[in-house]
Design brief:
This protein has 151 residues and is α+β, with helices and mostly antiparallel strands. It contains five helices and four strands; from the N terminus they run βαβαβααβα. The protein has a four-stranded antiparallel beta sheet. Helix 1 runs antiparallel to helix 4. It starts with 11 loop residues before the first strand and ends with a helix.
Amino acid sequence: MFGPVTIPFGVRMLFNTVKLKPGVTIDDVELALAEMCNVVKETYGDGQGGFVAGQVMRFAGFVSDEGSIDGGAAAQGGADHDLAIVTYWRSFEQHERSHADAVFREKFAQLATHCEHTTELGYELLWQGQPEAKVAADAKPAATKAAMASA
């Protein structure tokens, strides 16, 4: 549940922002959110369903002045949402089929009762990477162990 995810090139990322109703807390929606995410993972997480991976994030309140232009969210009074649900799909069409399915719609409706609004936008992956030095450093201990074992 909290392990790393692998995102293959060519996937579609859906970024869903969720604004909770006034007075609703993350604790209030935790069960509905968990059930909805589990349905997506278990029902659509195969070649036919198209779900690859997902993440749920809570807005933590910090805004990067260095990464924002013209004041960014800080100049606008912060984020207009409380949660971000990020999902990765083999295709946008598979995402749409899953979300039209009655199994998903039931779970999403339970979450929606706590929401002021949600907005889900789709993105295509253009680039991804990690530091090359880290990849080499991670591989080095295994190579060193193999060399030592053969000595």
